[in-house]
Design a protein that fits this description.
4 helices; Muramoyl-pentapeptide Carboxypeptidase, domain 2; alpha+beta; 4-stranded antiparallel β-sheet; single chain; 18% helix; two-stranded antiparallel ribbon; binds zinc ion
């Protein structure tokens, strides 16, 4: 009897130490109708050289990078106005949000391709963005991680943002994002005890909201580069 009680108590204690799926995503979202543009990912967001995204998700990415140990390996995939092709060719499925610059592939900063401690923060990010499998928290449209083929701990995390329908290589008319200012004010994900996570990054001074808009290519539109390739 006694043993059972202890076991039960232990189980209870354990259950509450686990992160729990309750640390759901952003507390609010908004729709950005600002003009889109494919821009280089700013240096404040660790990334593979040359990676670009639609500028409208840059503030969200920066916010994420300040809280999770991310390294972006791919963003926009497609042609630029100058004809140059960037991003991973043939890596993404048809209708992938990568073709609109509204998706990123993420690995653990300083991690390897083993699902080890370096990936803890990425798993936390994945659970935050998608507390329940196949039910991403707004504004995320699709989250690819554990449970999704070719994604997961030790492989990569895919995050994409909800947006207006857009053809390949076109900028979406609107993008759903989470307001960074509000997010900043909102209390930190308090709920769960976080065991190993001491990600207390001395909150870096609030970044200027403006993305490094100092993009060379003047032309905004990435709209339909000539070839409709399969
Ligand atoms: Zn992806």
């Amino acid at each position: 009897m006694r043993k059972l009680t202890i076991a039960a108590a232990l189980a209870t204690a354990l259950c509450c130490l686990l992160p729990g799926p309750a640390s759901a995503g952003p507390t609010s979202t908004r729709v950005s109708y600002a003009a889109g543009e494919i821009v280089p990912i700013p240096a404040s967001i660790p990334h593979e050289e040359g990676d670009m995204v639609d500028r409208r998700i840059v503030p969200n990415l920066r916010w994420i990078a300040q809280r999770f140990p991310i390294y972006v390996t791919d963003g926009y995939s497609g042609p630029l106005p100058n004809g140059e092709h960037i991003g991973c060719r043939g890596c993404h499925v048809r209708r992938s949000d990568h073709y609109n610059g509204l998706a990123v592939d993420i690995v653990a900063l300083n991690g390897s391709n083993r699902c080890d401690a370096a990936w803890t923060g990425i798993t936390r990010l994945a659970e935050w963005a998608e507390p329940l499998q196949n039910k991403p928290a707004a504004p995320f449209r699709w989250v690819g991680y554990d449970g999704d083929a070719h994604h997961g701990c030790g492989h990569h995390l895919h995050l994409s943002w909800e947006h207006a329908p857009a053809a390949h290589f076109e900028l979406a008319e609107w993008v759903s994002v989470f307001p960074v200012r509000l997010q900043d004010v909102a209390p930190h994900p308090r709920g769960g005890t976080k065991p190993g996570q001491t990600k207390q990054k001395a909150t870096p001074p609030t970044p200027k909201a403006k993305p490094a808009a100092a993009t060379p290519p003047g032309g905004v539109s990435t709209v339909q580069s000539g070839g409709v390739s399969p």
